[in-house]
C-alpha cells in the first residue's frame, strides 16, 4: 500500500465498513467463509436488485388493477337498490312462509281432529299414524329462506358503504380497498411464507403471478360476484373466509339437522346466492362432519349440494348385479328345428357384412327407383299427366244445360276473375261459404278459354274424397280421381280433373311432370283448413313455382283474412267476392239459451230459484255434515229455514216416492248414518229408474252421498248399474268424484276414477257461465241447471237433438242437416231416430253421409231427409234445399300422443270459421235457421276465431319423410320443414328425425331407407302400422294384420258396460289361451263376419255394430288399395297367378313377432310389477285379458301393448296388449349385440338361437333391399318359411 494512502487511513471507518459488510452478508445469507471474495457481494447485490425490480413491476400491476376495482364498485352501486328490494322480498317471503306454516299447522291439527272423530264414529280402534312430512318440508323451506336472507343481508353490508350509497361514500370505499391492496403488497415484499425467488425448476413460470393469486384469495367474493370464474372446488391455503356470524349459524344448523334426519339417499342444496367464500365455508363444515359436497351449475345458478358419505351406498351398489334372464327351450322339437334351419341356411359372409354398420355414405339409386316405380304404381293422377291441354269443344254454362242457379251468379264475378287469373300467375280468392265458388271457378275458366280458343286443362284439389265427388257431380265432363276410386279410373280424358290434397301431394312427390307439361290451371280449395298435407303442397309450390311458366295457381278460401298466406307467397294478387249483393237473406242463429226455453220448455224463474236457494241449502248440508262427523251430532232438520217455502212449493208436484227419496238423500248427505244408506240402496233396488235422481234444490244424487261418506261397499254395486250417470253435478258444479276428493278417502277416490269419465267440454261450458258472470241471472241459472242435470256420460245430448228435430218438423218441410263430431255419434243418432219413428210421424227419412256412395244416394232421393254428417261436409259439399242446420259445435280430431307415438281421438270445439261455414249450409233463403247446441258466451269468448293448424296436432314423421323426397338434392329435411307456412319448431323436427332413425326408416345420414320408402307408399299416418303391413307381406300373414290395424285405428268395438267381470268373461271366451287382446279382436271380427245375423251377434256379444262395420269397411279399403297399386308385386315379382298372402295367418307367434318388431317402444315387463322400457311403473287396463292371468311372483313376462296413457295417477296400458313368447323377443326384439332387453341380460342356453337371430335379420334386410327386382336370386323366402315352421312349435 502506498504511503500517501496510509496517511488517510481511518481505522474506525474500516471497522464500520466491515460491520456493514457482515450485516449485509447475514441479510443475504452469506457465511463468513465466503466473504473473502468480493464477487459474492456483487452477485448477491445483482440478485437483490432483480428482486427489487420484480417487486416494483408487481406494484405497478396492482396500480393497474385498482381502477378496474373502482369501476366494479361503481357498477355494483347500480345494483344496490335491487339488492335492497330482494332483501325486502325475502323478508316478505319469510313472513308469508311463517304465516303459511302456522296456517298449515292449524289446518293439520283440525284435520287430525276431524280424522280422529271420524274414526271414532266408525268404531275403529287402530288409528293411523299421522305423518309430519309436510311440516318438515315447510321447516326446510323456512331454513333455506332464512339462509338466503342472511346471505343477502351480509352481502349488502359488505359491499355497500351505507343504505343509500353516494359517489362520495363509494369513493371512500374504493380508497379503503386501495389501502387494503397496499397492505397486501407490503406483506408480499416482506413475507417469508411464500417463495418469491426463482429456483430454476418448472414452477418459475408461475412466480410472477403468485402475488396476484394471493390478492384474489382476499377479494374472492367480489371476483365471484362479478364473473363467477373462480371455482370453489378447492380451498386455497391462506384464504380469509369473511363469513358473518348469522350465515355461519344458519349453515351449521342446516348441516346438523341433515345429519340428525338419518336419510342417506337424499341430499340438501344450499341457495345459489352464496358467495364463493361462503361455499368454501360450507365445504369446510361438511368435511368436519364427514359429508360429501358437490357443485352444480355455473354463474348465478351455481348451488352447492351436500350428501352423506357414499361409502355405504357404493358398497351396496357394487353388490347389485344386472338382471339376468336365462332363455332355455324345453321343447326338443323346437331345438331340432333351429338346428335344421341353420344347416339348410347357414350364416354367410354376406350376411355378416350386411348387418355391419356403414361407416361411409354410399350413393343409392333408391330415389330414382322410388320415383319411377313405387309411388307411381296405380296412381291415376300421375297416369293422366300424358293428357295435353286442348281447346274445349263444348260449353258448360249454356242456358239449355239447366244448371242450378247459385248465389255467386248474382254477382259480377266472372269477368273480374277471368281477367285477374289471366294477368297474374297466382291469385287468392276469398268469399262467403256456400255461394258456389268451387263449382263456378272451373266452369268460368273452361268457357272463357272456349271463347278465346285457348287450350286448357284444370286440376282442382279438394280437402276430402267426399268433397271431390260432390264437386264432380255438379261439374259436367269432369274426372274424379281419389284413393277411393283408383280401380275405376280407366279412360281419363277430361279437361277438368278433380282430386284430393293427399293424392296431389303423392303425385308431386313422384316428380313435376304433371304440372310442367299437362296442367295449365291449378286450383287449391279450402286453403284456410290448414291441414298438414296442404302445408306441404304450399311449401312445394312456393319453392317450385318458377319452374312452371304457363301454370296459373288459384287459391280458394272462405275466410276474409288471408294476410298470412299472402305474405308467405310474397306479392300476389287477391280478390274478395262482393257479399253485399248475395247476403241479403239473413240466417237466424239460435243458441242453447233459447233452445232450452222454447223447445225444452224450462222455466227460468224456477231454475233461478233453484240456483239461489239450492246453493244456500247445499252449504247448510255441508256444514251440518262436517259437524256431524266431528261432533257426532245427528241433525233432524234437513231443510234450512230460508229454503222451507221454496221446497214446499216444489214438494207439491212430487210423488210420494220422490218425497221419500228426497228425505233419504238429505239424511244420508247430512248425517251419514249407515241405516239411512241401507234404506236408500233398498229403495233404489226396487226403483231402478231412480239411480240418476237428483234432489230438486241441491241437485245431489245418491252416488254423491255415497261418495262423500266413503261408503265403498255400497258404491261398488251402484257403479255396476249400466244406466248410471257418473258425471251428474250438484248446484255447486260438484260431481260425485269432486265430493269424494274433498271429503272421502283415497280408496273411494281411486274406485270412482276407474268409472268416471271426465268431460272437459262440459266443464268449459259451466266455467264460461260462472267465471265471467259475478251476478247470476235467470238465463245463466237456466243454462247451469240444464248442464248440471243432463246425461254427461255422452259428449252429445242426443235427446235434445231429437227434440229440436221434432220441433222443426212441425213447422218446416225441407231437409234438416245435423253436424255431429264423428261416425260413432252419427250411428248412435241414426239408431235413436229410427227407434223414434220419425218416418211415420213426420214423413222424414234419416240419411247418413259416410262416403261418396252415400252422397250419391242422397242426391237421387227426392223425399224429405234428415241428414247426419260430420266436419267433412262443412265445405265443398253443395247441399240443396236445407232449411235448418243443427250444430253441436264439437268436432272429433285425431291428435298425436307423444307417449304412445300414435294418433288418439279427442273431442274439441270447432272454430268460429267452421261455425260460420256450418251456418251457411242452410240455403233455402229467407227463414233459414241455425240451431247451436252450446251457450253464446262460449261462442263469443272461448271458441277460437280460426282453425288450428293440423301440423300442430299431427305426427311429423310422415311429413319429414315427404320433405326428404322433396328436398332430396336441394336442402336438408329441417330446412325444408322451415319453409312451411306454419313451420314446426326446429327441435321438434330434429326429434322426429331421431325417432325415424330409431324405427330404422332413416339411416344415420338422414337418408330414406327401403323400409321407409314402402311405409310412405301406404296411406296410413301411423308409421308402425305401415311397417306391420310390409312385414305381413314378407311373412304372408296379411289378413290378421289388416284386421288388427283396422281395429286399433277405428277403436274398441266392445260396448262400455259397467260390469267389468261380464266383459272379461266375453273376452276370455275369444282368447283361446293366447293371452292377447289383439287375438280377441281378430277372433271377434272373424266370428262377426261369419255370422248370418250380424246385428244379433253384436247384441249377444255386447259389441257395437257400427264400430265393427267401420272396421270392416276400413279393412276392405286397405285391401283394395294394396291391390290397386300392385303392392304384393314388389315382394313377389316373379310370381304368376293367384298369390296367397294369408298362408301363415294361423301362426299367432308370427303375428306377435311383427307386433314386437314394429312397436318396440311399447314393450312392457312383468317382474312382480309391470314396468315400461324406461323402468316406469305401469298399470294394466281393467278390461284387458291379461288381468285374468295368474302370474307367479318370481316369473318374468314380456308384453307388447298398443297404448301407453299418462295421467295424474301414473302410466296406464291401453285396452290392447298381448303376452309375447321369449323366443319371439329373441328373434325380433330390438336388442343389441349383448342381448340386453329392458334392463334384462338374456342368457342363451344354446348359441344357435343367436345365430338364428343373425340369419333372420340379414334375410329381412336383404329382402327389403331387393324388393321389386326381377333378377332377385336370393332364397330368403325359403328361410321365412322355415321360420314359420319354428314358430308353429311355440306354445
TrEMBL record:
Top-level lineage group: Eukaryota
Coiled coil stretches, renumbered: 135-187
Keywords, comma-separated and alphabetical: Coiled coil
Positions of the Helicase-associated domain: 991-1082
Family matches, as InterPro entries: Helicase-assoc_dom (IPR007502), P-loop_NTPase (IPR027417), R3H_dom_sf (IPR036867)
GO molecular function: helicase activity; RNA binding
A Pfam family the protein falls into: HA2_C
PANTHER family membership: 3'-5' RNA HELICASE YTHDC2, ATP-DEPENDENT RNA HELICASE
Protein name (Swiss-Prot/TrEMBL): Helicase-associated domain-containing protein
Amino acid at each position: 500500500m502506498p504511503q500517501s494512502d496510509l496517511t488517510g487511513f481511518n481505522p474506525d471507518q474500516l471497522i464500520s465498513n466491515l460491520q456493514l459488510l457482515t450485516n449485509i452478508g447475514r441479510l443475504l445469507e452469506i457465511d463468513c467463509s465466503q466473504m473473502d471474495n468480493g464477487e459474492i457481494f456483487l452477485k448477491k447485490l445483482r440478485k437483490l436488485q432483480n428482486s427489487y425490480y420484480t417487486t416494483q413491476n408487481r406494484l405497478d400491476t396492482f396500480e393497474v388493477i385498482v381502477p378496474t376495482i373502482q369501476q366494479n364498485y361503481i357498477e355494483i352501486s347500480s345494483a344496490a337498490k335491487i339488492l335492497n328490494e330482494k332483501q325486502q322480498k325475502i323478508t316478505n317471503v319469510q313472513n308469508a312462509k311463517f304465516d303459511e306454516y302456522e296456517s298449515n299447522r292449524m289446518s293439520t291439527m283440525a284435520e287430525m281432529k276431524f280424522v280422529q272423530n271420524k274414526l271414532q264414529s266408525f268404531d275403529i280402534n287402530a288409528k293411523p299414524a299421522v305423518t309430519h312430512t309436510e311440516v318438515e318440508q315447510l321447516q326446510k323451506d323456512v331454513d333455506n329462506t332464512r339462509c338466503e336472507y342472511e346471505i343477502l343481508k351480509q352481502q349488502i353490508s359488505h359491499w355497500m358503504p351505507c343504505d343509500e350509497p353516494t359517489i362520495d361514500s363509494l369513493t371512500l370505499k374504493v380508497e379503503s380497498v386501495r389501502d387494503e391492496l397496499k397492505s397486501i403488497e407490503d406483506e408480499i415484499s416482506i413475507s417469508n411464507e411464500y417463495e418469491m425467488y426463482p429456483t430454476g425448476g418448472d414452477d418459475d413460470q408461475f412466480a410472477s403471478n403468485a402475488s396476484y393469486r394471493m390478492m384474489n384469495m382476499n377479494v374472492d367474493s367480489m371476483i365471484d360476484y362479478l364473473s363467477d370464474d373462480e371455482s370453489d372446488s378447492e380451498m386455497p391455503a391462506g384464504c380469509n373466509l369473511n363469513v358473518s356470524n348469522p350465515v355461519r349459524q344458519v349453515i351449521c344448523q342446516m348441516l346438523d339437522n341433515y345429519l340428525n334426519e338419518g336419510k342417506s339417499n337424499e341430499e340438501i342444496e344450499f341457495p345459489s346466492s352464496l358467495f364463493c367464500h361462503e361455499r368454501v365455508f360450507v365445504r369446510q363444515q361438511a368435511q368436519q362432519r364427514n359429508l360429501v359436497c358437490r357443485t352444480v351449475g355455473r354463474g348465478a345458478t351455481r348451488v352447492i349440494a351436500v350428501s352423506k358419505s357414499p361409502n355405504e351406498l357404493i358398497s351396496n351398489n357394487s353388490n347389485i348385479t344386472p338382471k339376468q334372464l336365462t332363455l332355455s327351450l324345453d321343447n326338443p322339437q323346437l331345438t331340432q328345428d333351429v338346428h335344421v334351419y341353420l344347416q339348410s341356411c347357414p350364416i354367410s359372409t354376406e350376411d355378416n357384412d350386411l348387418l355391419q354398420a356403414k361407416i361411409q355414405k354410399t350413393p343409392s339409386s333408391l330415389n330414382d327407383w322410388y320415383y319411377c316405380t313405387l309411388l307411381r304404381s296405380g296412381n291415376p293422377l300421375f297416369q293422366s299427366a300424358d293428357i295435353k291441354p286442348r281447346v274445349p269443344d263444348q260449353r258448360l254454362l249454356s242456358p239449355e244445360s239447366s244448371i242450378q242457379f247459385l248465389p255467386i251468379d248474382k254477382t259480377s264475378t266472372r269477368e273480374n276473375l277471368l281477367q285477374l287469373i289471366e294477368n297474374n300467375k297466382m291469385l287468392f280468392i276469398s268469399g262467403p261459404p256456400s255461394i258456389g265458388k268451387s263449382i263456378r271457378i272451373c266452369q268460368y275458366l273452361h268457357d272463357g278459354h272456349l271463347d278465346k280458343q285457348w287450350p286448357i286443362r284444370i286440376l282442382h284439389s279438394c280437402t276430402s274424397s267426399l268433397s271431390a265427388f260432390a264437386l264432380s257431380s255438379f261439374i259436367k265432363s269432369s274426372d274424379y280421381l281419389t284413393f277411393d276410386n283408383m280401380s275405376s279410373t280407366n279412360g281419363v280424358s277430361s279437361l277438368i280433373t278433380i282430386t284430393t290434397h293427399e293424392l296431389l301431394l303423392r303425385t308431386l312427390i313422384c316428380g313435376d311432370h304433371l304440372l310442367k307439361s299437362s296442367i295449365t290451371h291449378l286450383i287449391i280449395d279450402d286453403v284456410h283448413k290448414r291441414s298438414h298435407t296442404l302445408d306441404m303442397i304450399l311449401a312445394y309450390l312456393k319453392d317450385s313455382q318458377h319452374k312452371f311458366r304457363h301454370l296459373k295457381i288459384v287459391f280458394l278460401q272462405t275466410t276474409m283474412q288471408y294476410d298470412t298466406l299472402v305474405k308467405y307467397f310474397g306479392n300476389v294478387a287477391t280478390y274478395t267476392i262482393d257479399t253485399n249483393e248475395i247476403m241479403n237473406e239473413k240466417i237466424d242463429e239460435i243458441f242453447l239459451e233459447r233452445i232450452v226455453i222454447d223447445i225444452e220448455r224450462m222455466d227460468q224463474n224456477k231454475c233461478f230459484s233453484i240456483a239461489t236457494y239450492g246453493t244456500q241449502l247445499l252449504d247448510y248440508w255441508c256444514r251440518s255434515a262436517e259437524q256431524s262427523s266431528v261432533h257426532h251430532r245427528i241433525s233432524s232438520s234437513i231443510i234450512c229455514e230460508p229454503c222451507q217455502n221454496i221446497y214446499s212449493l216444489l214438494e207439491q208436484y212430487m210423488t210420494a216416492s220422490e218425497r221419500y227419496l228426497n228425505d233419504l238423500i238429505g239424511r244420508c248427505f247430512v248425517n251419514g248414518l249407515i241405516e239411512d244408506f241401507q234404506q236408500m240402496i233398498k229403495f233404489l233396488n226396487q226403483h231402478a229408474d231412480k239411480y240418476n235422481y237428483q234432489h230438486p234444490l241441491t241437485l245431489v244424487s245418491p252416488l254423491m252421498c255415497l261418495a262423500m261418506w266413503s261408503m265403498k261397499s255400497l258404491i261398488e254395486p251402484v257403479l255396476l248399474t249400466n244406466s248410471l250417470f257418473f258425471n251428474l253435478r250438484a248446484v255447486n258444479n260438484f260431481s260425485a268424484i269432486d265430493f269424494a276428493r274433498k271429503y272421502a278417502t283415497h280408496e273411494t277416490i281411486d274406485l270412482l276414477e276407474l268409472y268416471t269419465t271426465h268431460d272437459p267440454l262440459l266443464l268449459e261450458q259451466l266455467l264460461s257461465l260462472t267465471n265471467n258472470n259475478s251476478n247470476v241471472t235467470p238465463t245463466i241459472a237456466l243454462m247451469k241447471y240444464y248442464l248440471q242435470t243432463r246425461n254427461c256420460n255422452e259428449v252429445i245430448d242426443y235427446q235434445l237433438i231429437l227434440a229440436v228435430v221434432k220441433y222443426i218438423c212441425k213447422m218446416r218441410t225441407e231437409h234438416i242437416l245435423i253436424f255431429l263430431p264423428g261416425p260413432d255419434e252419427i250411428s248412435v243418432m241414426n239408431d235413436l231416430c229410427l227407434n223414434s219413428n220419425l218416418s211415420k210421424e213426420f214423413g222424414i227419412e234419416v240419411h247418413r253421409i259416410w262416403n261418396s256412395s252415400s252422397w250419391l244416394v242422397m242426391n237421387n232421393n227426392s223425399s224429405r231427409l234428415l241428414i247426419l254428417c260430420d266436419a267433412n261436409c262443412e265445405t265443398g259439399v253443395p247441399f240443396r234445399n236445407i232449411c235448418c242446420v243443427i250444430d253441436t259445435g264439437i268436432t272429433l280430431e285425431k291428435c298425436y300422443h307423444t307417449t304412445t307415438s300414435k294418433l288418439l281421438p279427442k273431442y274439441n270445439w270447432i272454430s268460429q270459421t267452421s261455425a260460420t261455414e256450418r251456418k251457411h249450409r242452410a240455403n233455402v233463403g229467407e227463414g233459414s235457421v241455425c240451431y247451436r247446441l252450446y251457450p253464446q258466451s262460449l261462442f263469443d269468448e272461448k271458441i277460437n276465431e280460426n282453425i288450428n293448424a293440423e301440423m300442430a296436432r299431427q305426427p311429423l314423421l310422415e311429413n319429414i319423410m315427404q320433405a326428404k323426397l322433396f328436398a332430396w338434392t336441394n336442402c336438408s329435411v329441417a330446412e325444408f320443414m322451415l319453409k312451411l307456412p306454419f313451420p314446426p319448431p326446429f327441435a321438434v323436427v330434429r326429434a322426429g328425425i331421431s325417432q325415424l332413425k330409431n324405427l330404422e326408416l332413416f339411416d344415420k345420414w338422414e337418408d330414406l331407407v327401403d323400409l321407409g320408402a314402402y311405409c310412405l307408399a301406404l296411406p296410413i299416418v301411423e308409421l308402425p302400422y305401415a311397417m306391420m303391413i310390409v312385414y305381413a307381406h314378407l311373412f304372408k300373414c296379411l289378413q290378421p294384420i289388416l284386421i288388427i290395424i283396422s281395429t286399433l285405428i277405428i277403436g274398441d268395438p266392445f260396448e262400455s258396460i259397467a260390469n267389468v267381470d261380464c266383459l272379461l268373461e266375453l273376452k276370455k271366451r275369444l282368447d283361446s289361451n293366447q293371452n292377447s287382446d289383439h287375438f280377441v279382436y281378430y277372433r271377434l271380427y272373424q266370428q262377426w263376419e261369419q255370422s248370418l245375423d250380424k246385428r244379433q251377434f253384436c247384441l249377444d256379444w255386447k259389441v257395437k255394430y257400427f264400430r265393427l262395420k267401420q272396421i270392416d269397411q276400413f279393412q276392405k279399403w286397405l285391401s283394395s288399395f294394396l291391390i290397386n297399386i300392385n303392392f304384393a308385386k314388389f315382394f313377389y315379382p316373379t310370381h304368376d297367378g293367384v298369390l296367397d298372402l294369408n298362408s301363415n295367418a294361423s301362426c299367432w307367434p308370427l303375428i306377435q313377432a311383427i307386433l314386437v318388431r314394429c312397436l318396440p317402444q311399447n314393450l312392457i315387463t312383468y317382474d312382480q310389477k309391470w314396468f315400461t322400457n324406461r323402468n316406469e311403473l305401469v298399470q294394466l287396463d281393467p278390461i284387458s285379458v291379461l288381468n285374468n292371468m295368474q302370474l307367479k311372483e318370481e316369473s318374468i313376462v314380456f308384453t307388447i301393448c298398443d297404448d301407453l296413457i299418462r295421467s295424474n295417477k301414473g302410466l296406464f296400458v291401453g285396452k290392447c296388449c298381448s303376452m309375447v313368447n321369449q323366443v319371439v323377443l329373441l328373434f325380433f326384439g330390438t336388442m343389441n349385440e349383448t342381448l340386453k332387453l329392458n334392463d334384462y341380460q338374456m342368457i342363451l342356453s344354446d348359441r344357435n338361437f343367436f345365430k338364428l337371430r343373425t340369419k333372420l335379420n340379414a334375410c329381412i334386410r336383404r329382402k327389403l333391399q331387393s324388393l321389386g327386382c326381377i333378377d332377385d336370386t336370393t332364397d330368403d323366402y325359403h328361410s321365412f318359411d322355415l321360420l314359420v315352421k319354428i314358430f308353429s312349435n311355440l306354445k
